[in-house]
Amino acid sequence: MHARFQSDSLSEKQREILAFIREYVEENGYAPSIREIALSVGISSTSVVSYNLRRLEELGYLSRDRMVSRGLKLLSALASPSKQVVQIPLLGRIVAGAPIPVPASDFPLMGDEVIELTRDLIGDPAGLYALQVEGDSMIDALVHDGDIVIMRHQQRVENGELAAVWLKDREEVTLKRFYLEEGRVRLQPANPAMKPIYVDDPRLVEVQGKVVMVIRRLE
Q1: Is 137 a catalytic residue?
Q2: Which of 128, 155, 165, 197 is 20 to 30 A (C-alpha) from 22?
């Protein structure tokens, strides 16, 4: 059951929305989406949720950054003091499926978007970046089309770890489980309907980072 906020200026639904946001942030380390709020408090229309969020913002209970994915912040005593928020840059999209060509830079940029998470959830934010997943080759690893993966930039991973991999000869990038075995690289999907990618020359494979967190897109 959600905690209750006592204020004559708030409706019952607005108190429920505040309570849900606080509990969601404490549990997950980032803010809920508008659709998640709607489902939690029993509102059928996301526009009604947006209206109530605007009202809560006007009353000084929260702030909203409309340029940031899940950009809600509780203000004052409503926010847990131990939940320091950090911003992770959303650099672009990565394919969890058959790799596709990308521009000369490693990942296509998506502007100035960021993902906000709490420091106690992610630890040291240095070297972290976010990518949005396209494709369904990693569904058995609970990574679905539209999800956000938080990556730590590193050029080496252990066998079996989920990594963003640059295929130099193809100029393609893909998200797969990485295996170095018998002098070649195996990039293994987590979908029984798809076949692994084999690269005989490991020098043609460059690890771009390791997945450290998945933020699920709500259907």
Answers
A1: yes
A2: 128
Please say whether the structural domain 85-215 has been given the CATH code 2.10.109.10: yes
Identified catalytic residue from 44, 176, 195, 210: 176
**In this structure, what token pair is assigned to residue 174?**
């893909």
Look at the pTM and tell me if it is higher than 0.85.
no
Return the pLDDT at 186.
95
Alpha-carbon distances of 42 from 18, 94, 196, rounded to whole Å: 14, 34, 43
12-78 topology per CATH: Arc Repressor Mutant, subunit A (1.10.10)
Q: Pinpoint the residues of the chain covered by CATH 2.10.109.10.
A: 85-215
Catalytic: 73? no
The segments of the chain whose pLDDT lies below 70 read 1-9, 67-69, 76-84, 97-112, 120, 217-219
Which pLDDT does position 104 carry in this prediction? 43
| Cα dihedral sign, 166-177-195-192 | negative
C-beta separation of 130 from 148 below 8 A: yes
Out of 63, 137, 195, 210, the active site residue is 137
- Following DSSP, what letter does each residue of 7-45 receive, concatenated? -TTS-HHHHHHHHHHHHHHHHHSSPPPHHHHHHHHT-S-
